[in-house]
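Researcher: Re-running this chain for the archive, since the previous output was lost when a drive failed. Same request as before.
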Amino acid sequence: MAPPPPTWPTEITDYIIVGAGSAGCVLANRLSADASVGVLLLEAGKADRSANIKIPAAFPKQFHTRLDWDYWTEPEPHVDGRSLYIPRGKGIGGSSSMNAMLYVRGRPLDYDGWEEQGAPGWGYKDVLPYFIKAEDNSRGASEYHGAGGPLRVGEQRSPRPLDRRLIAASVAAGIPRIDDYNGPEQDGVSMFQVNQDRGKRFSCADAYLRPVSDRPNLEVRKDATVLGVEFEGGRAVGVRVQGRRGRVEILRAQREVILSAGAIGSPQLLQLSGIGAPDDLRAVGVEVRHELPGVGRNLQDHPFVTSIFEVSDVDTLRYAEKPKALAEWLLRRTGPLSSTVAEVVAFHRTRPGLPAADIQFHMGAAYFEDHGAETYDGHCIVIGPVLISPKARGRVWLRSANPTDKPRILTNSLSDPDDVASLVAGVELTREIAAQNPLAEIVLREIKPGPAVSGRADIEADVRRRLMLIYHPVGTCRMSDTAADAVVDSQLRVHGLEGLRVVDASIMPTIIGGNIHAPTVMVAERAADLIRGAVGASSYQAPTDGPSAKASATGA
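Model: Regenerated structure tokens:
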């Protein structure tokens, strides 16, 4: 049944931000700091009150619930035709209310690579100040870190003592110890720093939104599903929104509409609004408003697989759900429930000649398989190699013209031989780590892949059979002033249109070497300055041979 016709307009504000996730919360804070402008933040989900949000170790409990967009890929041709699960936070805080709270920035070369691909102002020297600005790091201020910013970054509250064995065994296997993997060098093994406040999750809603909730010029609206962007000619002037009772409204933005719905939601909204590859849009009955073939292309994510070993050490997360552990967390915010599950991180190059690490290990004192859904009656450690510089590229495209239908997604994971080689080498190294003392002293047996999996061919088959995604989708609204498939320019404005930007992980030209939450916060911090004209707003010149020039030439 078609929704009732909208009323026009029911509300007028200056900025409309779609999505109260990591980027949207940052923007809402920074833009509403100017009391002369109105900011409306729209979120399809609900409030972030669930205990499974607040308790760090409970993050997998959010999967497949109302707190989750619960996306799945199409059958993936290179992983035995399996559909891969992609959880995305649905509610205030977005995926910052669902992730594992691991604070990782990536490498300097990641951002210098963005600049080389046509995004001036996004090199490492340009983005580092925004990482620093965002941080309230427990280690204090330094050349590479900030203190006093909104986002709390600190040490883990109650790490498992077994972590010392994991680190020592990694060093024995050839991975050096590193004190700060978020500095200029990344390679090495360390404890994760985390986004927590005294053992409790510290999301972007906690960092950026809650402290300014009383601003009269900022409205946060929950249960508001955006159906599409409204235009007058080539300018975005508002959004069409369906509220809790099914009523459809058109909300008007006098200055800009900003999409911060993530690497799946933002391209979907652009396509629903008639912006994208014409053949894809016509295939589902969407009228083409503006030709922009790169919308939804360039999808990247970090695939991973697990190696799991049963151990004799009983101080693991096996009993984290018992009443005693819950009581400890409720009373003192300590104990196993304050864990991020993965507590140790290591970055490693699996072969000579690589410019940076190709594998990131997530390690912890737990049994973690099938995104936490599979259980095991025993004490375990997990060492999960993650492919952090994948060559595979996928896409997001519409399933239908119905805004409530989930889009189609394909990552093409393991389509490139180098990606396969890196993950196979990563699994081999997990076995080397487990064979080193002092870890070997407590390892009882290998559960996965298991002793029957021996040799590279067997490991490759096992990787294709069990591979998962680690919840880092990016790239589907690629940023570049010059690339033919770019969706936004270096100021994050949608090419060929006015009054419309995209600010979230979808703008990343290539995925960064690590978890994407911290980089997404950085992107939004810098975007806020671009929008307010605080940096670079007057220096941009429209390219003569890029996608903006093409759009202008066609009258778009």
